[in-house]
Amino acid sequence: MTKNKQHLTIGESFFHWGKRTYLMGVLNVTPDSFSDGGEFNTPAAALEQAQRLVDAGADMIDIGGQSTRPGAEPVSEAEELQRVLPVVAAVRSSLNVPISVDTTRASVAQKAVAAGVNLVNDISGGTFDPEMLSVVAQLQVPIVLMHLRGTPETMQLLTDYQDLIGEIYQFLEGRIAAALAAGIERSHIIIDPGIGFAKTWEQNLSILRQLSTFQALDVPLLVGVSRKGVIGHILNQPHPKDRVWGTAAACCSAIAAGADLLRVHDVLEMRDVCLVADAIWRNGGGRR
């Protein structure tokens, strides 16, 4: 373990990378997300779900106001803010938990951090909005940089890679360099290979098989495979909520390959996966 990956304070919580696996609980406040759209898009419903996620063992809550499922159309900045900010305010006023905002807009990131967000999760790796990296540097909060081609509307048409792992690696390496150049501290950078984003189901499996390759980038690694289409394909399961044990298998594989943070919907079940997998692969670090 290198010194850069050892620890990070997010909000009032301490993350010691490599000691155990951390869980980012998904809180979609959208009407059209692929597995839970419309369920939590009021502040009261969202707060109740956030409480359930924390009680189940979530180490942080990821709030998103724009669906990034394949084919999703973008919403306006005003609409995204209207969805996100009241929920952030409700969660921050009631729960002492790190909050992440899932956005590609620097303006949304800025207003969300002002409302109490502690981390920015950008599926574009800071490429959709040229101001994102400089704004995050000014805000002095961590950022997740994910690999993506195209947009959610077009990404599944852009799955032709000459060297899948090599191209993802180069993209993430370049985004790390851009973040550093913008003034973001290296300890504030987390990467995500973007499972399900501009990848076929076979390519998603290849990423999971070769996930340890990304350890060489020397920053924490987030994996978001929860309920995704690759699992539905393998299980022949069209209903995302019925993919929990397939998700568990994929998460266990990711932990074995060195994932530091898992973005999941089913926190209670994945907490058990983490406890056992950490006890096996992280030198007994699974107890909390």
List the helices and strands and how they pair.
Layout lengths: L7 E3 L2 E3 L6 E7 L14 H14 L3 E5 L12 H18 L4 E4 L3 H10 L3 E4 L9 H8 L3 E4 L17 H19 L6 E4 L8 H9 L12 E2 L5 H7 L8 H13 L4 E4 L2 H15 L7
Parallel strand pairs: 3-4, 3-10, 4-5, 5-6, 6-7, 7-8, 9-10
Antiparallel strand pairs: 1-2
Helix pairs in contact: 1-2, 1-9, 2-3, 3-4, 6-7, 8-9
What would you say this structure looks like, in words?
The chain is globular. It has an 8-stranded parallel β-sheet with strand order 8-7-6-5-4-3-10-9, covered by helices on one side. A two-stranded antiparallel sheet has the order 1-2. It has 9 helices and 10 strands. α1 (43-56) crosses α2. It has helices at residues 43-56, 77-94, 106-115, 132-139, 164-182, 201-209, 229-235, 244-256, 267-281, and strands spanning 8-10, 13-15, 22-28, 60-64, 99-102, 119-122, 143-146, 189-192, 222-223, 261-264. By secondary structure, it is α/β, with parallel strands linked by helices.
In short:
Helices cover 39% and strands 14% of the residues. By secondary structure, it is of the alpha/beta class.
Here the CATH topology equals TIM Barrel
User: Structural class, judged by helices and strands?
Assistant: alpha/beta
Largest sheet: 8 strands, parallel
Q: How far apart, in Å, are the first and last alpha carbons? A: 21 Å
List keywords for this structure.
39% helix, 288 residues, TIM Barrel, globular, alpha/beta
